Amino acid sequence: MFTILDKRKLSAEVFRMEILAPNIARERKAGQFVILQQGGDYAERIPLTIADADPEKGSVTIVFQAVGEATHSLGMLEPGDAIENVLGPLGQPTHIENYGKVVCVGGGVGVAPMHPIAQALKQAGNDVRIIIGARNKDLVILEEEMQAIASELTICTDDGSYGRKALVTEPLKELCETWKPDLVVAIGPPIMMKFCTATTRPFGVPTVVSLNTIMIDGTGMCGGCRVSINGKTKFVCVDGPEFDAFAVDWDNLLMRLGTYKPQEQEAHHRCHIGLQIKEGEA
Amino acid sequence: MSHPNREQLDALAQEQLAAYGGRKLSVKERLAIPAQDMPTQDPAERVLNMSEVATGYTDAQVVVESLRCLQCANAPCVKGCPVRIDIPRFIARAAEGDYAGSVAVIKESSMLPAICGRVCPQEAQCQLTCTVGKSLKSIDKAVNIGRIERFVADWESEHHARKNPEIATPTGKKVGVVGSGPASMTAAADLRRAGHEVVMFEALHKAGGVLVYGIPEFRLPKSIVQEELDALYAMGVKIERNFLVGRTAKVTDLMEREGFDALFLGTGAGLPKFLNVEGENLIGVFSANEYLTRSNLMRAYDRNKAGTPLYGSHKVAVFGGGNVAMDAARTARRLGAEEVTIVYRRTDEEMPARREEVAHAKEEGVRFLYLHAPLKIVGDEKGRVSHVELITCELGEPDASGRRSPVEIPGSEAMHEFDTVIVAIGNDSNPLIEKTTKGLDVNRRGNIIVDEETCATSMKGVYAGGDIVLGAATVILAMGQGRKAAKAMNAFLADGGATA
Prior knowledge:
The structure holds two protein chains of two kinds.
Chain A lengths: L1 E10 L2 E7 L1 H6 L5 E5 L7 E10 L4 E7 L3 H7 L6 E2 L1 E6 L10 E7 L3 H13 L3 E8 L8 H7 L2 E6 L6 E2 L3 H10 L4 E5 L2 H11 L6 E4 L15 E4 L2 E4 H4 L2 E3 L5 H8 L3 H15 L7
Parallel strand pairs in A: 8-9, 8-12, 9-10, 10-11, 12-13
Antiparallel strand pairs in A: 1-2, 1-6, 2-5, 3-4, 3-7, 4-5, 13-16, 14-15
Helix pairs in contact in A: 2-9, 5-6
Chain B lengths: L5 H15 L6 H6 L10 H4 L12 H9 L8 H5 L6 H9 L3 H9 L5 H7 L11 H5 L9 H14 L15 E5 L3 H12 L3 E5 L8 H4 L8 H14 L2 E3 L10 H6 L5 E4 L5 E2 L12 E3 H10 L17 E5 L3 H12 L4 E5 L11 H9 L3 E3 L2 E8 L5 E14 L5 E5 L5 E4 L2 E4 L3 E2 L3 H5 L25 E3 L2 H4 L4 H20 L6
Helix pairs in contact in B: 1-4, 4-6, 6-7, 6-10, 7-10, 8-10, 11-13, 11-20, 15-16
C-alpha cells in the first residue's frame, strides 16, 4: 500500500498528490512514469508521469486530471488514504545534457510532467524558455514553479482569460524564428504535440515529445501502447515515453487513442456525477 | 454432437466399477476398460460463462481410469514426465481410493499438481509414452494421467488435507526470487523449506505470472493459483508486488545494497511478437497478451464491474496455433464475438496447441482456417480493422526443426472480413533485466544462459529458470527448472557461497 502524504487541487479537475513510495523515489529520473491501480480488483491500471520526487522523504508526486473513472476515484482520496498499487519508475529517463537553448512547451495537465524535465535541463546548464498552454485561466497550473526555472515564461489561454490569447504554437513559432532554440520539448494533449511538431519541423529544430498512449501493464508485455516510429513498431512503456517528434506517426497515434471512446464516454459521465463536477467546467 | 453429462459418465463408470472393481485384473482385462471421458460443461452453456469447462472426474471415474494402468515395471510414462513423478505409484494409490496417499506421491516431485494436471500437454509428455496407449494404438486411449493427477490434487484441496512442508531451522541467508510464475513459485517453496528468508518480487499487482494473466479462468480457475500463493505465504515467503526488477531496483542493487545472498530469475517470456505486416497498428489489432491480460488479470470480462474496457468484437481472427491462440479465441467467443476464426499457416496436424483445447474450441464454435497466412490488415476511414488479406499456403519440405514449412501460393491472395485481429504467434524474452544487469550472459534470442545442471548464470549467486532460459515453454518445465535451481542454490548457500 502507498500512503498519500499530501493532496492539493490545482484546478477544477486537476489534482496533485504526494505519495509515499521510497523505492520509486530513490530510482526515478526525469521523464519516467508510474502505473497506478486503486479501488479493488476490478479497477483499471493507469499511467501517470512522476512530476516530482523527494528521495529523502521517500515520496513521489503525481499530477492528474480527473478525466475518467480511474482518475476520478483517485481524486476522491485524501491524505492518509492509501493507493493499493503503484509500480515504477517506468520508461526510459529523459536524455539530459547541455544543448544550449531549449524551449519547453506544456499543454494542460502536461505541464506537470514537463516540470521535472525543465528542471533537469536547467540544472544541466541550458537556457530554458517555457510556454504553458491552457483552455482558460482556472486551468493554468504550476505557474510559480515554471517561473522559477524559465528565463522567459509565456502563458497562453484559448479564451484569453489569462496571458496571451493564443495556441502554444504561436509563441513557439516566434521563438523558432527569433531565438533559434537547439531543442524543443513538448508535452501535452497529443493534438497539441502534433501541431508543435508541425511548427518546429520547417525550422529543423530537434523536437522531443512524451507520448501518452493507452497502457495496461507498462512493462512491455502487451503492446497496447505501441506506436509507429519511423515506420517501426515501438512500445511507449519501454522504448519511450519520449521519442523524436518528427519520427512519430501522429495520425495513427491519435486514432489509436480513440479505441475505447464509447466505453470511456459512458464511464466519464458516471463519475462526473460522483465528483460533482459540472459538465463543461473543466 | 451429443454431450454426455457428468451423471451419465458417472453412471457408466459405476457399471464398469461393478464389473472390474475389487479383484485383481489381468492385463487383458485392464486394456479392455474404456478410457474415461472428462465431464465438461455443455458447449452451448459454457460459451456464455467463464467457469471451468472440464469439471473433473467423479470418484467412480477416477478409480476406473486408474485401473487401466498396467503398473509397468519400466514405467515409460515416468520418463515422459519432465519432473519424473512416480506415476504408477500415485495411480495405484488412486485405484485403491487412497487419494491422500496418491497426492503425497506426486508432491515428492511436483509442487503444483492441480495446475499441471490441468494445463500440461500430457499427450506430448507422460501419456505419449504410456504402454496402454501404445497397445491400443491410439494416444487418445493412453491412461489419462493428467486427469487422475488433477482429481487427487483437487481432492486434497476440497478436503483441506493440505499440509505445509516443514521449514528447516533459519539459515540467516536471504534469497530473492524474481517473478512469481510457476518457476519462481516452485523455487521459492524449495528455498524457503531449506530455512532461508525468501522474498519474491512481482511487477504486476497480482502474483502468479501467466497462470493469472494468461491462462483463462475457464481452463484454470484463479482460486487454484491463489491457493498455491496462500501456501507460500503460510510458509513465510514474502511477496513484494509492484516491484519491477531492473527499474524499481536493479539485480546488482538487490545483491550489493539490499543484502540478498542469492537470486533466482524467473521472469518468463512475456514480450509479444507481432506479424510485421502493414496495418498492424490499426484499431482492433491486439497481441494475445493484451487481449488475455485485459480479460483475465483486469477481469474486463465482467463488464458491469470492471474499469478496464474491452473492444466490442463481432468477427475475430486469431493468428497462431498454440495454446495462447486457443485461449484467445475461446475468450473472444465468451466475450460475445459471433464469429471467431483461428488462422494458422500449417494444418491441424502441426498445430502445437493441446488436442483437448483444440477439441474444446471446435465444440464452442471456433472456426479453423488452415494453410492461410496474413499479408496485410486493412482498416476503415476511422482506422478500425475491416479486412485482412490472406494468402493460401501449402506445406513444403520439413525444416531443421522437422516441421514442414508453409509455402505461399502466388495468386491466392484474398480479402476476408474481420473487425478484430488477435496476434498469438509467440513471445520473446523481456530484455529489461539483461539490459540493466552487467555481467549477465544471454544468448542471441535474449534468453539467459545457464549451466544445465545447476541453472547458475554467469553471475555468482544468480540463478535462472523457466521461460527466461527456455523460451516460451510449459508450466511443468518451468517448475522443473525452479526445482533444479533451488537445489543448486541451497547447496551454494550451505557452502557459504563458495560453489558458484
